[in-house]
Amino acid sequence: MTITKTFDTEEIQKRFPKKYIVLTIVSLLTLTLIEIWASNTVVAYGEKYEKLFAMERNLKMENQLLENEIAKNASLNIISSKSAELGFYSNQSIQYIR
Amino acid sequence: MRIFWIKIFFLFFFFTLYARLFYWQVIRAEYLQAQAEGQHFTDIIKVGALRGNIFFADGSILASIVPFFSLFGQPRLIAEDQKLSTGYLLAKILVDDTDQVDSLAKDFINKISQDLDWVSLKRGISYEKRKQIDSLNLAGIGFEQGSGRFYPEGSSSAHILGFVGGDNKGYFGLEGFYDGELKGVSGTLRHEKDAFGLPILIGNFFNSNAKNGKDLVLNIDRSVQFIVEQNIKAGLEKYGAKAGSVVVMDPSTGAILALASFPNYDPQKYFNFPKEYYKNPLVADQYEPGSTFKVLVMSAVLNEDLVKPDTVCDKCFGPISIGGFLIRTWNGKYYPDTTLKDVIIHSDNTGMVFVGQRLGLDKFYSYLENYGFGQPTKIDLQDESAPDIKPKNEWREIDLATASFGQGIAVTPIQMVRAVSAIANGGNLMEPHIVRLIRDDSGTFEIKPKIIRQVIKNSTAQTIKEMMVAAVDLGEAKFAKPKGFKIAGKTGTAQIPVAGHYDPDKTIASFVGFAPADNPKFVMLVQYDQPSSSVYGSETAAPTFFEIAKQLFAYYKIAPTE
Q1: Residues in chain B with pLDDT < 70?
Q2: How far is B46 from chain A (nearest CA, A)?
């Protein structure tokens, strides 16, 4: 008579615990729900995005206009005519001190 | 039998259904797909690139961009009873003069009463006016945005800048030369939209970003430019000249510090000016340089060691006859046994004939080429041209004689100022540049000074410099020289060739020089076309040169040394 002894493999001994499978499924479900909620919330933000986009464009435009205004008021033609109005004139006899 | 007909009915029903599905799914598939995409995606929106700005050397704006708007109407979206009020509301905002409100309102009403989907109402509307119109919330009224150039200094530097045409392309000057860098690359925007036409944030976005044009930072110093423009404008009036030009260059780098010509034009409203005003005479127009050319010829003969400054001219006792032509001095005065230094001081044509003959045609021609005549200077302005120098084998004895004192030879002012810069900096011919930096988001490219070649020895440059200083101190224009400063210069009065001969009453009066002579900060050429108060450069261009130089000494904080 032959006695055969069987041994369980290590794989079977280290079988994935059931609670992790459940946890994974629950996590996946939760993430799916969050994604659906986020998508449904964000999808309605198109109007807000459009407004922000327009606001950014307008602010850039106003910034450019202000830069232009500053440049115009700082131009030498304007400074020259305004300083003349205030009574300034160029020095005709410069004294050099040695 | 009834079962049979029911079977036939169902067979026919499914066949019809199948045929219809085949029609939509296969035959009309592409069309439907395109329609679905059209409903699902926005149209491709072109995102225009902003044209690059142009800055003075100190970073202040010379040319930037300004947004403007075009007003349009969609007549079918405007209720009939609203058209009258819409027209008047718009006109009241857009017109400052109340008398014009009626006519503009009627024009608007006519346009929005047409049986059209879209009509253009007015162009070039400012952002402020647009905001006022927006606040009215008028149905069927909208705007299209564009952009144009803004010039805070007005028409200053027009010939440097050029202009941007209605096609958004740069013409003349920097706008033309650097159009590729300045214009940028447009982008596109397309995304999924919802039922209201608003973007779906989690949908697909198909964007290609616009790449704005590069900015240019110039070598032009706005204070120097302002001083130059004020003086040349005043000079034009004072001397009754047809035109006037000034160019100021840093001899050590070739950087153009100022460049102005009058009459000029407003680059914003270039279309209101004659087309002849567009080109920059300093780089595009040729002229006979007259006596200013003598210093270059003298430098060549000195560089070849063929003469010395104290060499005596043995043919300066009277007019010289060459090939049937009689060459005289400009004032009829002759100085027998004059030295070459005195030839420059007195601007003696006969002395220059002597110099030209000593130099000989071969060497004369080679120095012409070495000084860069006959070739463009490669200045970064679109409108540069270079007059040809006739082939050497076509030169006659008289041609060499007259070219020695700057007649019968054509140059551009920029070629002339560059050649004199070589004397100022010790003999190096530089490449002139308006732009110093080209920059964008990815980095900055610096245009570095470039020496083309050494034309004359440093010792020759110092010798000719002293001759030019003497020409200023003892020459015809000494009355206008600022006291205490060492200035090197030379006057020029070139007659203008008209129908095969020279008109004695029509001249180009010029003065070219540099200062301070020992360590030049700038080289400058002043030129008047046909001055009427006096035809001579010593009485017109020279005083303007010295007045500008005086102001530049104060600006650069250069004290007198003598």
Answers
A1: 498-500
A2: 15
